[in-house]
């Protein structure tokens, strides 16, 4: 079985669109993600990027995990940002690391611009290399601390395995959003998310959407991985 291909089918990528937002055809996306997996495997030892080297583990724990939120992200784009032209929408991945979720998302949505924010120089070098190798003309890598970014830069900021959303970091992330923008946080257990959100002093408006990651959430993952959720926080 081709795990990546089967996973993309299970996530509905064959349809070529989610909520009326066109996505890269599944065969092209699969080819890009295969190339990305090879680059991750080649550079992982040198750059200490991700915690696994196996092809299928990378496909499931990183690529399919990142792409599992795409249907929700497309529904946000087609609803919340319906009035914006494609080239006006600005999306970001904060603390991108090896490019997750930013590289899979930017590959699937070539019509939108993504900024990958990462504070470590060598990881930014890796991200620029990936973007060039995958032909991602819609990606800019910015070497910076989230705390040092200007305010009101992005419509939608995604982040995964970044930082706990405590008071200071929530303020930093909401500050870099344009008015009406939203944060999309890839998280694990719902109970922990609620605790994290309820501890924030100025309770932002948020919703939790369960994610199904093929070959992970329903069986093989660790306890932490078996429950995956996307938290959408509004500014
Ligand atoms: C645990 S890694 C996760 C990487 C990736 N998002 C993933 O899911 O695999 C966190 C990344 O965030 C970066 N980072 C941490 N704090 C940051 C900050 N304040 N501004 C920008 N990047 C930051 C780190 O350098 C690291 O690459």
Automatic annotation (TrEMBL):
Binding sites annotated in the UniProt record for S-adenosyl-L-methionine: 95, 100, 146-147, 160
Matches recorded under Gene3D superfamilies: Vaccinia Virus protein VP39
Chief location: cytoplasm
Keywords (A to Z) from UniProt: Cytoplasm, Methyltransferase, rRNA processing, S-adenosyl-L-methionine, Transferase
EC number: 2.1.1.-
A Pfam family it matches: GidB
CDD domains cross-referenced by the UniProt entry: AdoMet_MTases
Enzyme class: transferase
GO cellular component, one term: cytosol
InterPro entries reported for this sequence: rRNA_ssu_MeTfrase_G, SAM-dependent_MTases_sf
PANTHER family: S-ADENOSYL-L-METHIONINE-DEPENDENT METHYLTRANSFERASES SUPERFAMILY PROTEIN
Entry function: Specifically methylates the N7 position of a guanine in 16S rRNA.
Protein name in UniProt: Ribosomal RNA small subunit methyltransferase G
Name of the encoding gene: rsmG
């Amino acid at each position: 079985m081709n795990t990546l291909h089967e996973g993309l089918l299970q996530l509905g990528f064959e349809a070529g669109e989610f909520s009326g937002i066109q996505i890269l055809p599944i065969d092209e996306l699969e080819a890009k993600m295969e190339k990305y997996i090879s680059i991750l495997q080649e550079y992982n030892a040198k750059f200490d990027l991700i915690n696994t080297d196996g092809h299928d583990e990378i496909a499931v724990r990183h690529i399919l995990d990142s792409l599992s939120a795409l249907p929700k992200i497309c529904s946000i784009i087609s609803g919340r940002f319906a009035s914006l032209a494609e080239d006006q929408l600005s999306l970001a991945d904060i603390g991108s690391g090896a490019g997750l979720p930013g590289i899979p998302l930017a590959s699937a949505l070539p019509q939108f611009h993504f900024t990958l924010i990462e504070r470590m120089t060598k990881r930014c070098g890796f991200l620029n290399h990936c973007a060039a190798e995958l032909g991602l003309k819609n990606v800019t890598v910015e070497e910076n601390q989230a705390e040092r970014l200007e305010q009101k830069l992005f419509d939608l900021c995604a982040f995964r395995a970044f930082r706990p959303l405590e008071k200071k970091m929530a303020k930093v992330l909401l500050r870099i959003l344009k008015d009406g923008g939203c944060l999309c946080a890839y998280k694990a257990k719902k109970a922990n998310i609620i605790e994290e959100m309820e501890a924030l002093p100025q309770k932002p408006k948020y919703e939790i959407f369960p994610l199904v990651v093929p070959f992970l959430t329903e069986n093989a993952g660790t306890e932490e991985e078996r429950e995956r959720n996307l938290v959408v926080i509004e500014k």
